[in-house]
Batch of 3 targets.
Target 1
Amino acid sequence: MPGTSTHKWAMLVGAVTLAATLLVLRYGKHGHHAENGADVLCAHADDLSWNNRWLDADPLYAQAEYQFLRQGESEKALYAHVSRLIVRADSEPIAPLLLELQRDLSLPEATNPETHLRILVIKGMIETNYDAALARDTWGQVQILAKRRRHYLLLARAAGEQGIAAFILGDVGTAKKLVLRAWLAAKYLGDDAAHVRYASVYGAGLVELERYNDALKALDEAINTASHSQKVAYPSIAVNAKIDALRGLRNYPEALALADEAIRRLPATHLDAHLYQILTSKGEVYGDEENRSSAIAQYTAAMEYARHLGYWRGVVQTGGLLAKAYENEGKLSEGLKVIDEAIEANQRIPQELYFSPRNLAIKAELLDNLGKQKQSRMLHEKSLRLFDALLASAPTPNTERELLNQMREVYSRYFESLCREGHLDLAFATIERAHGRIEAQALSERPSLVPHDPTADEKRIEQLDLDILKNDDPKTGTELERALVESRLLLGDTTLSGLTSHHPVPLLAVQAHLRANELLLEYVLDEPQSSVLAITATSAHRYELIAGKELGTLAAQYRKTIHNRKTDDALGRRLFEQLLAPVVEYRLKPEVIVVPDGELHLLPFASLIENGRYTLVTHSFSVTPSASVLAMLRSRPQTQGTTPSYIGVAASDNSEQGKPIVAPVSFSDRADSLRPLPSSKKEVQTIASYFHGPSLVLLGADATESRFKSLPLNTYNLIHLALHGHADIEYSDRSALLFAPDPGGKDDGVLDVREIRQLRLKASLVTLSSCDTGVGPISEADVANLANAFIEAGAQSVVASLWDIEDQTTAQLMTLFYKNLSLHENKANALRDAQLHILEAGLPPYYWASVEVLGDASGSVA
C-alpha cells in the first residue's frame, strides 16, 4: 500500500523484512523442544527471528519444514511454514498472504496451541502494513493467548504492537502509552530485540510529529542497544528514522554521514533491501539540499538494487522520486524514461496499483513541461479516473486514506498546470472535484474487508485498472465505471459532496450566489508553493502562497498555542501575511468565506493578526466544505417563516453543580464518565427566551436520543444541542453526540455521523455547543465531522467548535450569539459580535476563536 506523511511512518515500522522487524514466539527458550535435527533447526531459526534476523532464519525454517513433513509432524511443519511468510511479504501482495494465513488457522494442525499462536503472530505482523485496525485486533488475541500460556515476553510485545497500530490509526495518546510500556518492559526483562524495536518506533513516531530533538534521544538509545548486542538485527527503523529527524532539523551533513556509516555497517550483502532504503533516504537528503545531481545518483543506485531484488514496489516508489528529480534538473526525457519504467513495474503487481495515479500525474507534469499540454491533460484525467476506481474498491481504511492523500497532491498539481495555462475556470472545477471527492469519501461507510479470494467482479475491475494504465482509450474508463456500478462498488451519491465530486458547480454559477460584500477564499496546499483562489461576485483571481508543508506547520503551531490558552502575536502576524495579506480583495470585502485545505481546517482565521489586532475586529469568517456546496446550499428552497421555531437540548443534570454524565460503552472506551455541563441548562433556556416562536427544551433525563429523534425535526428552524461531542479518529462516521442515558429506550444514546445523515432537517441553523464537534481526524484527509453531517442532513448552516472550551464561557458566547440572531443579524456577523464581546473582556482566543459557522452563514434566521 502507499505511504506518505503519517503512513510513511506506518510503512517504516510495518514493512516486514525490508525494515527487519518483529517478533517470534518464545516458549521458554524455543517454540519446540530440540528433540531431533528439525527441532534444532527450528529452535535456531526462532532465536534468529526473535532478534529480528528474519532473512537469516528463513532458510532454516525451510529445511525444518521439509524435515518435519518427512517425519509426519504436520503441526511443527505448519509452524515453520507460516514463519516463512515474513520474507515472502517483501515481494508478494499482502492480501493473498493474509488469506493464506486465515486458511492456515482453520487447518487441523492449527489446533496445536503453539502453532495457532504462531499463525496469529505472523498474521498480526503482516496486517500492520495492510490494515492497522485488523492488526490491532489480532494482537489483542495474541496478548490473551500469550498470557494464558505464560509467554510473558510475547505478552509485552503484543501490547507494543497494539500501540503501533494505534499510532497508524491516529490515536497518538494510546500509542504512546502502549509503546512506552512495551519499551520499559523490554528494558526490565532484558529483551534487547524488543528494546530496540520500541525505542525505534517511539522515536519514529516523534519524527512524524516533528519532535526531532526528542526523537533523537529514543533513536540513539535503539541504535546503541543494537550495537552492544551480538544477536539483535541491524536497527534499520532507528537508522532511517534518525536520518529523517536530522533532515527535519536541516542537519544534512550529519544525516548523510549516518547514511554512509549505515551502508558501511550493513552486516551482509543479502541485506540489499536495507541498502535500497538507505540509498533512497540519501537521495531525499540531497533533494532537500537541492543537490539534484547527487539526489539523482542515489535514486538511480536505489533503483538498481530494487531491480536486482525484483522489488517492484521499490521501483514504483523510487521511480517517482527519480523522475521528479530529473524534472527539477530539467532532464525531461530522462524523467519520462524512468516514470515509464515505474508505471510498467506497477503492472507486475496489479493488486498494488496505488502509486500509479501519482506516477501518471508525474508523467503528465513532464509532458506539460515539454509543451505537450493536450497529452498532459489526458494523463491527468486518466490519473483521476484511476483514483476513482481504486477508491471505490479500496480494501481497507488505511488504503483509502493513503489514496486520498495522494489524490490531493495529484489534483493540486493539475490545478497548478491549468492555472499556468490560464484556464482558471477549469482549475476551479478541478479543485472543487477534489474537495468534493475527499468529503464524499469521508462520508461513506467503508469497513475493513477481510482478505478473500478475488470475486469475478474484482478480477474484472483489476483488469480494467490495468487497461487504463496501459492505454488512453476513453472507452476503457466508461467500461470501468459500468463494472463498478454493476458490482455495486460505485453507488449513486446524492449528498452535496458526492454531487460536487462528479458535477462541480461552474465558477460563474458560484459567483452568482455571492453577495457584493462577500469574498470566498479557496485554498490549495501544495509543494513547492500553494495557492488561493479569491472569488467575488464579479471577479476571480489566483494568488501564489508559500509551500503547503510550511503553512501546515505554522497553522498547527498556532492552533496548539491558542489551545494552550496562550498567545503568539508574531506567529499570528506571519500567518496573516501568508494567508490573507496577498489577497487584494480581502481589504474590500468584510465577510470572508473560507474553503480550507489540510491543516487549515483547524485554523481559526478570525484569530490571525493584522496591524496589531485580530482579524475578527474587521471581518467575519465562515467555513464551507467547497464553493460548490455553498452554491448548492444557497439554491435550497428556504421554507422557514418569519418566526423561528426552536429546540434546545441539554443532557446535563439539573442541579446547580451538575453531575458527570455516564458514557455508554458504545460511545468511548476512554472514560466511564464525562465532565458535567452545569451551564448548559441555563444556556438552552435563555436562548429559548429570545424567540417568540414555538420552542421546546429537553433537559437532563428527558434529553435522550430517542426523544430527540421522535420529534418532527424538519419543522424546527433552530436546533441547539448543548451536548458532549466525540471525534472518532479511527472511523469518522462513528464521531457522535452523547445524549442522556436511556436504559429502557431503543437507542444507545449516541447519535453518530451515520445516524445524523439520515435525519431530515430544514433548519436554518444547527448549533453544536459541545466538545470538538468541528474536529475529525484531519490532516491526512479532511475527514467528515459532525458539522458536515448535519449539513448533509439538510441544515443550512452549523455552528461548531474546533476544540473543547470551558462550560461557562461557552454558555456566555452562545447566549450572546443567539441574542444577536434575534435582532436579525446574519449568522456570520452575529457570531462575530458575540466573539468581540468576549475579546473585549480581555480573554485570549482560546475562549472565543474555537467556534465557527460552517455552511451558508448569510442571512438571518428569521
Target 2
Amino acid sequence: MAPAVRRKKRKDEIQVSVGPFRSLADYKACEDIQREVWNMHDIDIVPAPLLVEAGRSGGILLGATSSLGDLVGFVFSLAGLVGLRPIQHSFMVAVRAAYRNFDVGYKLKAAERREALKRGMKCITSSFDPMQPAQAYFALGKLGQRAEAYEENFHGETTSLPDRGLPTDRVLTRWDLEDAAAVRRLEQGPPRRDLRRELKAATVINQLAETAPGLLSSTPVKLNCTADRFLFEIPYNLQEIKNRDLGVALEWQGRMRQVFRHYFRKNYAAVDFWVCETDGQLRSFYVLERREG
C-alpha cells in the first residue's frame, strides 16, 4: 500500500491477529467488508456460501481480527493450475478503512504466503488495476511480485467504485514465493531512494505535464527503448484525476495499454513500483526490466 503519514492511534486499536476463519459469522463479515472497501452492489459481492465452498476446495481464507474480536480484513485465494502445476490465485485482499496504513494488508498477504508454502505451493498469481498506484506499490513494490501480462477489460463491467467509468484492465502478476529478491523485499521492505540521483542514471520513456492544477498528462511514450531497465512515470493522484476528468483518465488507460502490451511482447516484465517524494510532491514510476532468456 502507498506510503502515508500515519496518524496516532491507541495501541489496542491497531493490534490484529491473522488466522483461519473462526465461524460462519466471519464469512458473512466478508460481505460487509467488500461493500465498505469497494462500494459495490450486491450483484458483485462474493457471497459467504461461495467463500465457504472455496475454502473447503483448496482455497485459502484468512482473516485479520482486532483486539475486540471483530473481523477487520481478509485475504481470499483460489486453488488453481498453471499448466499442470498447482498454484494459488489470490482473488481478494480487503481491509476496513479504519485499519489501513497499519500493515494489515501486508500481514494478511504474508500469512497467505506462509499457508501456500505449507501446502507445497511455490507461486501465487493475482491481478491489480494499473490505474491504482496504491495497488501497484503494494503488489510490486512491497510484496516483490512481477508482471508479464496485461488484459483489457478483464472483469467486464462491475459496480465497484474504483472501476466505474473505465474498462476493467488488469496487470497479471506472479509471486514466486521462494525467489531470493522477493524474500529480501518482504524482509527488508522497499528501499529508500534518492529520486534525483536515480533519474540521472535511469532511462525514462515519458514525461508528465500539468494541464491544470492537479491534472497531469503524458508526453508520447517511447516505444523504441532497448535499455535493460527503464521507468514509466504515472501520476500518483491518478484516482483523483479519474474522479475529476474521466477523459484524462481514459487517456492514461490508453497509455497503460500501449506501454504494457508493447513491452511485455518485447520480453520485458514490470518488476517494481517506486513512490518517491520530491519538492513536496509524490511521484510514481513503474519499473520495467528485460527478462532473462
Target 3
Amino acid sequence: MDSRRDALERWLRAQLHGSPFTLTPASEDASFRRYFRVTDADGRSRIAMDAPPEREPCAPFVRIAALLRAAGVNAPEVLAQDLAQGFLLLTDLGTQSYLDALASADRETANALFLDATESLLRWQAASRPGVLPPYGTALLRQEMLLFPQWYLGHHLGIELSVEQAASLERVLALLIASATAQPQVFVHRDYMPRNLMLSDPNPGVLDFQDAVTGPITYDIVSLLRDAFISWEDGQVLDWCVRYWERARGAGLPVDADFSEFFRAFEWMGLQRHLKVLGIFARLTHRDGKAKYVTDTPRFLRYALAVAERYAPLAPLAQLLRRLEGQAPRSVPSF
C-alpha cells in the first residue's frame, strides 16, 4: 500500500476542485522525493512532488524556485503547496531532458543546447547576492569529499587506507578545498547537469535545485560539462568552457582574467565533485539499495584520474586512482 500516494491524490483533488485527473510517475530521483505527472480531462499537465517532510522538506525548493524565476531562469512555478504534508503542485517543464536529447544530438544541436544552458547559468550567477543562500564552505566541501574514502573505498571496494595513505589523500583534499574557497563566490545550483535540464520554452527548464548554495563560480559549469551520465572529448569540453568564460567576462561576472587559471580552477573543482559523487553513488548502492548509480563510477574514475595526472601537486591521488582501475573489491592499493 502507498499511503503517501493516496494522501497526495486526496490533496490534488482539493487543489483541482474535484476535476478528474490521472496521476503517472514522471521521474526517478536519488533522494526520497517522487514526481508525478498530473493530467486533467483537457490534457493539460502539471507536476506533483511528493517529499516526505521529515526527510526532504519542501521549503528550500519553494524558496529557490522563486530565486531562479526572479533571475530569469525557467524553473517550475509553484502552483500550490502543503509544506506540512510535503506536497507541491508545479508547472510542467516537459518530458525530454537534456540527457535524453544529447544522446542522439549532432554537434550543431549539442552546441545550441549548451549555449542555452550557459546563458541560463549566467543569469543565475548574475543574480547572486551575499547572505541569501548557505555558504559552500570548507566544512561542507571536506565532508563531501570524505564520502570517497568512507563509501567508495571502504564500503564498495573494502579498502582501508594506511595512516600514511590517508595523510597523503588529506593533503590533496586540502589543496582542492583551498582552490574552491579562493574562487569568487556566486549562486550555485549544485547539480546543474543534463539530467536536471529539460527541453522547454524558454530553454532549458531547470530542476533539482533545492540544495543551492553560494559557492565557487566554476562549480555549475563543470557539473554541466563533466557530467555523471554522458561524457565528451576533452577538446569539446575545453571549447564549451572557453565559450562560458568569454560570456561570463562579457556579463561582468568575476571569472579569472587568465583563462588558464580559470581552467585549472574548473578542473580542480570538477575533481572535488567527482570524488564526492563516487562516494554518493557507492552510498546509494550500499545504504539505500539503489544499485544502478554505481555502474557509472568508472566514468568518474576516468575524470578524476585524468585531472590528477595533469597537475603535479595531485600526484598522490593520481597514484591511488591508477591502482583502483580494475581493482576487485577487498584488494588494497597503496600510494
